[in-house]
Amino acid sequence: MDTPTKVILDEREMPRQWYNILADLPHGLRPPLHPATGKPINAADLAAIFPENLIEQEVSQQRWIDIPEPVLEALWLYRPSPLVRARRLEQALGTPAKIYYKNEGVSPAGSHKPNTALPQAYYNKVFGTRRLTTETGAGQWGCALAFACQQFGLECKVYMVRISFDQKPFRKLMMQTWGASCVPSPSMDTRTGREILAKAPDTPGSLGIAISEAVEDAVQTPQTKYALGSVLNHVMLHQTVIGLEAQKQMAKISAYPDVVVACAGGGSNFCGIALPYVRDKIHGKAVQIIAVEPTACPTMTRAPFVYDFGDTAKTTPLLPMHSLGHGFMPAPVHAGGLRYHGMAPIVSQLLIDKLIEARAYPQLKCYAAAMLWCRTEGFIPAPETSHAIAVAIDEAQRAKEEGKEKTILLCWSGHGLMDLKGYEAYMSGKLTDYDLPQEDIDRALAELRDYPKP
Ligand SMILES: *Cc1c(COP(=O)(O)O)cnc(C)c1O
């Protein structure tokens, strides 16, 4: 054995600061715009839905930002997360490549999402917020925020995309266990929800609709703010603990990745593992950084870089991002966390700057990869995570063909123990791939024609 199977950090070795890529982006980020004026938004525009301390973080240019002590202590419940060598998978593939994965499935909610839910709940508590609202797709983010609100003594209301609410009943129960309330979206609890239900009573819902509902609730309820689980700069910042830990862990075994890969829905677990490596790359390191998305929702690989709303009801600022249009309705693939119409401005900018690359994979290929993972490494991955696994397997196979000793690092974003219905559908041959016709993309994008161009 040339390296150990697991590299574990001591709690005291956990990073004490988050890394802010805004300090190092070679061309900066385009500002979010106010939809009415077309001018960059100011802090006051965001104050209706976010607390001041998080707005400050959202626009901060400071390279390193201290993790507050109470947040560190809460993160210690499950962090540092292990870095694991997927040796059994390597053997099954017969590859000379070394595959490492950062297991973010060890958190109470089962994914990387508590890494930002905890600081967001903390900063809201400090600010004086009493209640948080949010949306959730597959239920991972709703669970993470429910858990975090419980830790810091806040109320929590979750609008869950209806198709996932029906497919994943246990996620709702987890949220309730942590004291949150969870309703299917669109719901009768908001004006947006009622209007959509009147027109389309059978709609499966979408993340865009659920965001609109959660924002409306936050704006209209006293002492209530809104929390977003991905896309925004401060979320990417909080997730950098993943990559910063990974760098320490790999340094302990004198390893450095040739390839870093993660799936991307809104971009947060990808940024979490990738941004510290993007920093290295900006400083001249050779490292290939890959974000992977489903072919059913190809924001990075087929959508243009535009200004678009973050939600369906057009209540958020206009964000500079790769987007399929705020009216886009993705096919009901099981990777619910990857069904978002846009992509984080930071990820979008990194793509334009060619510091990272993107791929789109169909769900059957990802499930096949996940099954091989389960039967070698044991842990059952979330359907979202299976996309990163599929890329890692392809890269390991390429290394074999080329006879190269490559080191691959993947972000194992979460476990799939609440997603077994997807596995059941796959194993009984009922799953299909979705080819997205160009007309659907064109139709969704037609709505953006008159918006400002980044
Ligand atoms: C939410 C989620 C994702 C996608 O969200 P990102 O913001 O792109 O990270 C990926 N994997 C898991 C397990 C998730 O819960």
Describe the structure.
The chain is of the alpha/beta class. The protein folds into 2 domains: about 5-15 and about 70-110 and about 235-440, Rossmann fold (3-Layer(aba) Sandwich); about 115-230, 3-Layer(aba) Sandwich (Rossmann fold). It has helices at about 45, 50-60, 70-75, 85-95, 115-125, 140-150, 160-165, 170-175, 190-200, 205-220, 235-240, 240-250, 270-280, 300, 345-350, 365-375, 385-400, 420-425, 440-445, and strands at about 5, 15-20, 65, 85, 100-105, 130-135, 155-160, 180-185, 225, 260-265, 290-295, 305-310, 320, 355-360, 405-410. The strands form 4 sheets. It has a 7-stranded mixed sheet, with helices on both faces. A 4-stranded parallel sheet has the order 8-7-6-9, sandwiched between helices. A two-stranded antiparallel sheet has the order 2-3. It starts with 5 loop residues before the first strand and ends in an 8-residue tail after the last helix. About 55% of the residues are buried. The model has no long low-confidence stretch (mean pLDDT about 95). Pyridoxal-5'-phosphate binds near residues 230, 265, 269, 413 and 414.
